[in-house]
Amino acid sequence: MGRRILSAVLLLACAALGAQGRTWTPEKWFDKPRSPRIANYRIEATLDFEHKTLEGQETLSWRNAGTAPVREMPLHLYLNAFKGPESLFMKESGGHLRSDWIANPADPSAWGYCRLLSVRMEGQVLQGHFGEDETVYWLKLPRAVAPGETIRVDIAWENRYPRVYARSGWGGDFLMSGQWYPKVGVYQGDRWNCHAYHANTEFFSDFGVYDVALSLPNALGLAHTGTQTNFVTEVEKDPKRPLNVIWRLHAEDVHDFAWAVRPDANWRMPERFEYRGVQIFYYRSGRDLANFQRQRRAVENALRWSDEWFFKYPYPTLTVIDTPKAASGADGMEYPTLITAGSTPFDPFHLRVVPELVSVHEFGHQFFYGMLASNEFEEPWLDEGFTSWFTHKALERTYHALLGGRRFQVGTDFLEWAGYWRLPSEDPLTRFGFRTLGEQGYYVTAYAKPTLVLDQLEAMLGRPVMEEVMRAYTQEMAFKHPTRQDFRRIAERVSGRDLSAFWRDFVEGTEVLDYAIRSVKGRDVQEGGWLLTGDKPVFAPPQSAAPGRVGSITLERRGGIKVPITLWVRLENREEHRIIWDGQDRWVTYSFESPVAAAVLDPDGNYPMLKDRLHASYTQNPSRRGFHYWSQMVWGSLVGLLQGCGIG
After folding, report:
1. Cα angle at 158 between 204 and 231, to 5 degrees?
2. Cis peptide before 547, with omega less than 30 degrees from 0?
3. InterPro entries from the xrefs (predicted)?
């Protein structure tokens, strides 16, 4: 206990020293609200770590920001997705999601729930009913709540955490508490937006202020959203539970709150650094010792690029959790001011996926989903897709490649490129996340295709204009609920371009951009044969004639998207030609007065979404890899592996 108190005091003392000279305090972040603060929560909860249960009470202060009175209020009860096999989440996922699965369904500890105990408003007990499934509960309000009016609802509930396989729950000695409290839906215009918890969707909620008091066993280290407001001089004991301490936490202008606990020394005294005015806390796992500096560099570079490209990260704190292997289902997730980004204990080739790509991606969600709170149910590409594009750009600027060597490089958008071309034509970006063609379709629509679409938009507008578009979009839509129409409106205004054709082809359409060189031919020009110029036909044996040998090239449009495309050709006589084909027909043939030596479609890279660049280029003398090349590749890989093992 004494060691626990000392750790807490030192941690808060460091935070207090680091806060000198700043305008924020742990209890108050901003002089003026950054968001509308529609849904505000005051929560008190007690965790029974041994039995993985929680009892909680919350006061929800909610303002009707719509245009019509409301007589019902929906509450998300997300943990009911893990109540049993008949929830929408379980039926859609089949108990398998994100490379993880539910273990031993016959074991009660594999399942969990969120059970309402009581709901009161203005002294009255509220009744209600479940919606599409038990992950949404509709409260019947005692009276109509007018636009602009604020109400307070008192809610008592209890949780049982499932064994984690999808974001929230426990594994080993680790517990991730995400989507753990009853959370109100979003009222827009004259209707509620509050979908059930589907397998291929995430979340949507309003901004507010959170004040959370957690009673936890004193042996646990706590990672959390927001800042801690107590423990400044001494640990606050729970008077009702002698072995518990109370953590008081605060967050402003966020739309969710998450936390995690673990009885680990690294968690009781996490690594703390400051970068660009942000206090960053790293909750490390024993397996990440060799990769910690890599993760730290990735997080700091993500902070740097987002600051320079969008706007400065406004929150005072950021928490980075390295999830243990036993709870891998909670890895790679984002919450306001908190991300989970695991590590790998063995990486001899330094493939920059774990921890670099995961860390940068999850931090990117602080903007796309966090401060630009789009509807992840209905438009998942606005958070996952924009974040994947930011990840690709930040990794490219920092590392240049996911895997690089003297002989080859794996591009930072390789995973998205490969994923998209596995299933390119099934769903448009406008499809709701839970209506895509399975998990692979969701990945393509939410992650892969949007990354390439934004690359395509940048190629069309040019990098400087694209940077202005993204800066305007993020700054104008921060702390709001942006839609795809907001992005289009801002992009058209900043660029001065009509994007209707682009929108039709790449956002709303499912056709692909696929042009190829179908064939390259050459032939000898000859003259002779029967000549009919005199009184009677005369036969002359065929022989070579000027210009000697000629060539031709046939282009083919294999996809449904029709765009003008440039063909660059170099002939054997060393002439070079640039031809623009309008791309409307299925094929076209161009002839030249010399054989074609080399040709490339889209030589300027105007179409990053061009499907097959292998068949969009041609050369007479293809490169050949000899024995020395391949032996060097094999030997270099072997030596790198041995060095990664500590041998050699």
Report:
1. 85
2. yes
3. M1_LTA4H, Peptidase_M1_dom, Peptidase_M4/M1_CTD_sf
| pTM of this structure | 0.92
Residue 620 dihedral angles phi and psi, to the nearest 5°: -70, -35
Considering only residues 528 and 367, tell me which one the structure prediction assigns the higher pLDDT: 367
Return d(Cα 426, Cα 437) in angstroms, integer.
7
Distance CA 446, CA 436 (A): 10
Name the residue type at position 438. G
* Tokens 């108190």, residue located: 5
| b/e code 340-362 from CB counts within 10 Å (16+ = b) | bbbbeeebeeeebbbbbbbbbbb
Non-local (6+) Cβ contacts of 479 within 8 A are: 34, 35, 36, 207, 253, 371, 373
Radius of gyration of the chain (CA): 30
Instruction: Give me the count of residues in the chain.
Output: 648
Cα 195 from Cα 65, distance rounded (Å): 19
Question: What's the rounded Cα separation, in Å, for the pair 202 and 4?
Answer: 36
Helix (H, G, I), strand (E, B) or coil at 3: helix
Q: What is the largest CA-CA distance in the chain?
A: 124
Element (H, E) at 273: strand 271-275
Residue type, 96: H
Residue 333 CA to residue 181 CA, distance in Å, equals 17
- Read off the pLDDT of residues 268-303 as tens digits, 9 standing for 90 and up: 999 999 999 999 999 998 766 678 999 999 999 999
Band the pLDDT of 647: cuts 50, 70, 90: low
Residue 96 CB neighbours (<10 A): 14
Contact call for residues 247 and 20 (beta carbons, < 8 A): no
**Residue 455: how many other CB atoms lie within 10 Å:** 21
342, two tokens: 């695991």
Q: Rounded mean pLDDT of 155-159?
A: 98
Task: Identify the pLDDT of residue 22.
Answer: 73
Tally of CA atoms within 13 A in the half-sphere of 376 that contains its CB: 24
The H or E element containing residue 145 is strand 136-145
Query: Around Cβ 382, how many Cβ atoms within 10 Å?
Result: 26
Bridge partners of residue 540, in order along the sequence: 529
Give the whole-angstrom CA distance, residue 480 versus residue 474: 10
How many C-alpha atoms does 564 have within 13 Å on its Cβ side?
6
Range 485-488 contact pairs with CB under 8 angstroms and sequence separation of 24 or more = 487/382
Amino acid identity of 256?
D
Residue whose structure tokens are 């490390």: 284
What is the per-residue pLDDT across 167-208, written as a single tens digit (0 to 9) for each?
999 999 999 999 999 999 999 999 999 999 999 989 999 999
Residue with token string 């998450």: 258
Q: Is the pLDDT of residue 17 over 50?
A: no
b/e map 113-133, b = 16+ CB within 10 Å: bbebeebebeeeebebeebeb
Do the Cβ atoms of 182 and 193 come closer than 8 Å? no
Specify which residues 55 forms β-bridges with: 46, 158
What pLDDT does residue 540 have?
81
Strands 317-321 and 338-340 turn out to be parallel
CA distances from 401 to 351, 390, 422, 441 (A): 9, 14, 22, 26
The DSSP code for 355 is I
DSSP 8-state code for residue 28 = B
β-bridge mates for residue 44, sequence order: 57, 213
